[in-house]
């Protein structure tokens, strides 16, 4: 049911029922009572309104179920709510799924972004003052690093998976709308996030789930792939800063200054899990199973986040040890969330409530 909006500042957050989006929604709804926050989400397999239970009754939170590829629906809600700001997170986000179904990624990530850009342009192109389109993107657009070096904002795009190609393309469209129609935009490219509410298809929550249930831990290839991990709440803090203080037409890289080889991270996770579950030391590591590699697997991602650090005074607030421990505790405490997600029960529950 819709609550009445009485504020002049309507902000659209797309993909707010997903992992990162839910943390962004929580931060904006609780920190900015003068904003009306509209969460537009199609509730795909990755969207879960349980992620927002603690804020769903707030006066300034509104949920709109819909698909960003549905042009009529998007144009209608832009006319009705006249969003002054858009924080666009909705996307197909999992690399392995993009290998099996690349078209779905083109539709949502490229076409969906263009439909949002068009609606925003139609509404405001005679009055850009105070407006902003913020595209949340990924470091994967830069392709892969070798053993050394860091991704900078000036690094050339060189995507290797259908997922990263679709995100690179959507970044280009956002920039093109900025140049062609003067649409005020900002883009951030972030490294791997971890934390509460992440769908257990991604490395950390999948492995936590599998350890709990004594299932194999499928490490791709030799496990010597490197990712730069960032606690999701630190990403939400960065998004808040960039939305409010970032410079128009700029890109900011966001990362954790925290590189881990997959196999080292998995072993650390196993140690924590043994301790927290009171299992014999070394028992979780026995679940590690080396499996066939991901096709086109990028060797290494690592972010140079010095621009956002210098210009907006952002840096991660949570260490990896602390963040990983908090994350495991959250999944252990929220086993029902995890079981509902893996069984599919979370979707049936919300289908009954909202349709
Ligand atoms: P997620 O898969 O957890 O959530 C995506 C959300 O978008 C879901 O709620 C889903 O229902 C919604 N959605 C998907 N297709 C939609 C459509 N066509 N219309 C409306 N809603 C739709 O993703 P996430 O990990 O939270 O990532 C959010 C954004 O951040 C994505 O744009 C992703 O590319 C980017 N990103 C993610 C990471 C990461 O580590 N997870 C890092 C950098 C950037
Ligand atoms: O870098 C940012 C990106 O991080 C985001 O844009 C993506 O949306 C997000 O999914 C993530 O992409 P990755 O492919 O890096 O994340 P994933 O958790 O799928 O994999 C992390 C690493 O672990 C990667 O090297 C592949 C490996 N892996 C993953 C899974 C799911 C395994 O070895 N086994 C697994 O079962």
TrEMBL record:
Catalytic function, reaction form: dTDP-alpha-D-glucose = dTDP-4-dehydro-6-deoxy-alpha-D-glucose + H2O
Keyword line: Lyase, NAD
GO molecular function, one term: dTDP-glucose 4,6-dehydratase activity
One Pfam family matching this protein: GDP_Man_Dehyd
The NAD(P)-binding domain, residue ranges: 12-327
SUPFAM superfamilies according to UniProt: NAD(P)-binding Rossmann-fold domains
EC number: 4.2.1.46
Entry superkingdom: Bacteria
Gene3D superfamilies per the UniProt record, alphabetical: NAD(P)-binding Rossmann-like Domain, UDP-galactose 4-epimerase, domain 1
Main EC class the enzyme belongs to: lyase
GO BP terms: nucleotide-sugar metabolic process
Cofactors (names): NAD(+)
UniProt record similarity statement: Belongs to the NAD(P)-dependent epimerase/dehydratase family. dTDP-glucose dehydratase subfamily.
Protein name, as recorded: dTDP-glucose 4,6-dehydratase
